[in-house]
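User: quick one
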Amino acid sequence: MAERSFKAEVEDLRLGAGDTFTGEGILAITKALLENGVGYVGGYQGAPISHLMDVLADAEDLMAELGVRYEANASEAAAAAMLAASVHYPIRGAVTFKGPVGVNVASDALANLCSSGVTGGALIIVGEDYGEGSSIMQERSHAFAMKSQFWLLDPRPNLPSIVQAVEQGFALSEASNTPVMLMVRIRSCHVTGSFAAKDNRPPPLTVRAAQANPQSNFARVVLPPMSFAHEQDKIKNRWPAAEKYILDNGLNEKFGPDAPVGFVVQGGMYNAVIRALQRLGLADIYGETQVPLYVLNVTYPLISSEFLAFSAGKSALLVVEEGQPDFIEQALGAMLYRAGADIRLHGKDVLPMAGEYTGQVMLDGVTAFLRKAAPEMLPGQVRAPNADAPAIPDLSKTVPIRPPGFCTGCPERPIFAALKLVQQETGKLQITGDIGCHLFACLPPFEIGGATMGYGLGPAANAAFDGGGDRRALSILGDGGFWHNGLSSSIGNMVFNKSDSVAVIVDNYYSAATGGQDILSSRAANGSKATGNPITRALKGVGVNWVRQVNHTYDVGHMRDVLREALTTDQPGPKVIVASSECMLNKQRREKPLRSAAIREGRRVDIPRFGVDEAICTGDHACIRLSGCPSLSLKKLDDPLRDDPVASIDQSCVGCGNCGEVADAAVLCPSFYRADVIHNPARWEQSLARLRARIIGWLQARRARGRLSFEAGAK
Amino acid sequence: MTALGAIEPAGSGDQGQILKLAVMAVGGQGGGVLTGWIEAMARAEGYAVQATSVAGVAQRTGATIYYIEMAPKAAQSPVFSLAPAAGDVDIVIAAEMMEAGRAILRGFVTPDRTVLIGSTHRALAVSEKTVPGDGIAKAEEVRAAAEMAAKRLVLADMEVLALQAGSVISASLFGALAGSGALPFKRPAFEAAIRAGGKGVDGSLRAFAAGFDAVQKTAADAPKPQSTQIPNPTGKPDLLAEWEALMRRAGALPDPAVTLAQAGLRKLVDFQDLAYGAEYLTRIEAILAQDKAEHSYALTAQAAKYIANAMAYDDVIRVADLKTRSGRFVAIRKEMGATEAHLLQVTEYMHPRAAEVAGMLPAGLGRRVMASPRALKILEKLFNRGRHFRSDGLWAFAQLYALGGLRFYRRRTLRHAEEVAHLESWLAQAMAYLPQNYDLAVEVIRCRRLIKGYSDTHARGRSKYDRVLDGIAVVASRADAADWARRLREAALQDEEGRALDGALDTIRSFS
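Assistant: Done. Structure below.
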């Protein structure tokens, strides 16, 4: 079960002609797929398109009614490979994953797909994860479109434009026998809005029907000499066909009047450009602009004739292209040069080469361009500001950074607490991390792991150290990464090379970082997917002989002992620990409603929570340095004798036990206690508790008589 | 505190009718729910509206932004931006004090237009919590900046308001947004959005009302004056009479020391007994005899504070005593929200070590044990393991109760002897500096702050203390020795391993 359920929203996917659809970008894309007769869909989760996968999974029933096959692919490579169905069959297929790291993984299949060419429309929906909120390196998917030759759509970020891009993408793909990548930026995936719905359309040919009548043609196989023919076909036929379709159907848009200067804008940047113009008084709120805009809803291929027509008669152009290298600006420059045009081309000279084009960046860039090329267009206030902005105190030293981290009660926290304790015994270890929530361990307070090379590549990233040494190298791998790529690239590599290293597989029952999607080793029953395949069985299957399964990661002492054993055992070959406990975010979401219902129905429920005796805590915060739990915080006491704040656990604590276990395993202090509040206790329990309380109360009263009591309000 | 300015709808920026609202939250605070309510309400009220967010890993407990733009519906669709821009936001809702600071830092709050609605509560960042000393960011700096940066400022503890209503902060913030009048919608429209959401409606409406009212009240949320009054204890009349005599004795100290000495007295009488309290006052009076009015008795005041902390050391007896008091169980019940209908079970997490057990032996025997590796090994074997006691159960309670009862024997233990020896050497060192450098003596007294915690942490504190005092000895003859002493102490509190302290010590050695 995914972190977010779209069961309610999915009902809107049934809307038809005459209805207005209102919702998020990802839902709009799904609706557009169904309206355009898609035959099969798939993909691999990852921000910002994780929720698109969740929507597809939740819409599985509806899609089955339409005869659409949904596949939760094992990786982006698997998803891209699935588009092979559109090579020989006139079936529209769509897959989704994140860019550009997902595109990296998919690139092998994409290159083959692009060489073969497609008969049915093949759409790759990529969530471009660039700029603020991104969890990956800052790169562009654009380069892949150029090298493999597929077309890249970057529509204006509003629902009608995105929906239209899906329709045009399929048609363009079929018109040019080329896969099309529809790029949606991180914020467009969750942007809300409305569009006019159409009826859903079942695929004219379903995959089931196609299977009954198999097709093959060796001319489409990537083998010489056919591959040489593919290369010629790309340039001689597919490219011109694409240009024709783009021109005939007006995929790119022009706005504004004729003027001596103009902007060439990636579709996804359109709103940000309009906002800058609005702020300069050069556009109204509906986008009526005084500066002509050439909006590239198709950023690859660029259409020379269309661009030159736009630039004709202009003295200067501004290219708004986010990220680097500046592929578009270079290409446009070459076009102008070849055409012998006398037009000044601006772009990365006034806008930054790297980094997100935020509102301020865009305003500054547009202003700088106009100052150079058309100063008369700028309002006087901008040309000669006469008032200084008021000085506001600088808070950059006050406000702490707040990177993402482990959630309250996360089962991964105790694994890294144990690892930190082990390193106190062994000294610092050579550690590599992987992609997933567990990568947060490289941040304070744990600071564990110094590299991450890709999904499922944690142990592979330690391969140079596989020969062993004074202290074994250790790597982290998540269950998601394990099934994505880790089993072969990391574990298989360790086995084959007789690695002496240790790998810790963090098994939290889900692909947790991407939103709690089920994977092969998930424990939950899933109607349409096969879960419940233990990681340990796979490990043994590929030949790992030293495997330890830890079923309760919160036992920090045990976790530490297992790690120590893995680091010191004489057994040759890879040492692999599978540390399993359920993702707390998902567990709480699952159990909280059940617990509330049980309490309402009068059943016995034990709710644990931790606390700190503030009189016993001395405020050294050693516990926090082994935890970082959001619910374990600090509190300043109203006591003039105390300098430092003491530890304090707030009511968001879920009683996972990490802090108590850490205090015990690291021999920190006796301040922690666990309080179990028993709802609807049995009668005998209550009687026993009353008896105990009476005896304890008598003892307490006896002692209190001999001393002064300062417990204000205690009685 | 809530404040300032006339109530008028926001949105008089460059683009007229577009109203821009950013929600700055910490992942997990329900910023998405709040955004959903605002969006649904605006749509229901006839506005074109667009919301965006960044989902995914970036949201796991990290700082995150939700952004909404709206404009009255017209024939044409407005072109909205997908992200907030510096200097171009009408309303900022900050779901935490430092997130308000972050909004200001990023330029989203500007005096010409921005209504800032913030919660004053703190969700501490990891970097603030891991510092061994006090690393908590200064909220008053954010408040001061907010007062300058915002056109209108609404600040209240929205977290507490929500918790009191049995709900979450998104609801109280939504109430504050309604109460601020910054959006052109009336209260029923807000409440309708909550009802339409359909989840936890009653709690949300209660928290909404609390948030709404908080804006109307002025200065209701002002920090309460701290009560430093020592509450009167209860007990037998003869003990009370003795207590009052001690309090009078403490009250006779110079003004700057009285509050601290009375707090210290309370702590030590609670720790041990009245005689121990008297002993404490005797120590302070001895220091006072060498103190001077011209320094406003800083030495006596600081000695009153730190001698109390040193004398109330954290031994097994104290822990057991505190864990078995009746007031503690009452406090835990309250903290956990357990009522008469619930049972409460309390499990203690303890891990005694040989050194602590040896410390409880009579001083002579204890010293012999500590000197014998064999004896220590036996003690380790017998005692060194984690123990999870159910202190609401009779057997565990009885054990802790018996340990706590050893109070009367405490003065004969090895631990006590060690603590007294350390205390006296510390005071002697401080007083030795007094004739040449008053301020330095005060700083040395303050160094006692470094010693805290249990077992390893305590040992580390002791070692830092020793290194700081050694460092002070190096610079003691300099005129700015007190300043260096303070810097060394602060460096020692910055990180666990003592890296900052090492750096400071290197500096000292470089010029001495």
